[in-house]
Amino acid sequence: MNQSMLAAIKGKLVVSCQALDDEPLHSDFIMSRMALAAMQGGAAGIRANSVVDVQAIRATVTLPVIGIIKRDYPDSDVYITATMQEVDELMTAGPQMIALDATLHRRPGELQLAALVQQIRQKYPSLLLMADIASVEEAVNAESLGFDCIGTTLHGYTPETAGCKLWQDDFAFLRQVLAQCGAPVIAEGNVDTPEMAAHCLTLGAHSVVVGGAITRPQQITQRFTEAINHLY
């Protein structure tokens, strides 16, 4: 198993460079420039959505990439790299790691997560797999399935965890996952400030992924305007 990417991002920042179809920066060229800016700012890795974005980013920067494909399925609320089809598509762009939704929710076509992981391991034995989870139970399950690392990505984004924030109660959820899992844990989700990112690492996170606070200017602008509007 190639662990070089995990070594490269240990104790460092990964920047998520994503813009969905309805966002103003949706463009593989723009995302590649975002990745270049992140690299120049000291990031150790990039997380990206879609084959074209991963291709453009890999052609622009030397940083390792965590690839995902977000795709909606009518029979499932799992949308992050949900099936083998997305994995095969991403592998045409050659990311060093692929992240999958590793929640316990129903998957497309009743596909079982264990079967998907086994399939990926057989076809791409050197590929690193990241488990995007929302609960401690899902983190423990993902580790038992052999994921290379666990990401807190979906905490607060599932019906069971709606309204939760990673930073609540001094990062209580992150602490619980770290206590339960021996695999590297990557802190991701609502890490909004440099201080939060640093604190995640001091608590024992292997790495930290920051997205919107760096690469989504409409969200950053909204935070400023909301603070200002509260004055009136």
Which helices and strands appear, and what pairs or packs with what?
Blueprint: H1 4-9, E1 13-17, H2 28-40, E2 45-49, H3 51-60, E3 65-68, H4 84-91, E4 97-101, H5 113-123, E5 128-132, H6 136-144, E6 149-151, H7 168-180, E7 185-188, H8 194-203, E8 207-210, H9 212-215, H10 217-229
Parallel strand pairs: 1-2, 1-8, 2-3, 3-4, 4-5, 5-6, 6-7, 7-8
Can you count the helices? 10
Q: What is the CATH class designation? A: Alpha Beta
CATH T-level topology: TIM Barrel
Structural class: alpha/beta
Physical arrangement of strands within the biggest beta sheet: 1-2-3-4-5-6-7-8
User: Which geometry do the CA atoms define?
Assistant: globular
Can you tell me the residue ranges where pLDDT is under 50 for at least 5 consecutive residues?
A: none
Integer tally of domains: 1
- Strand content is 15-25%
Helical content class? 40-55%
Structural notes for this entry:
- With 232 residues, the chain is α/β, with parallel strands linked by helices.
- The protein has a single domain (4-229), classed as TIM Barrel (Alpha-Beta Barrel).
- Helices cover 42% and strands 15% of the residues.
- Strands 1-2-3-4-5-6-7-8 form an 8-stranded parallel barrel, surrounded by 6 helices.
- Strand 7 (185-188), helix 8 and strand 8 (207-210) form a beta-alpha-beta unit.
- It is globular and about 55 Å long.
- The N and C termini lie far apart (57 Å).
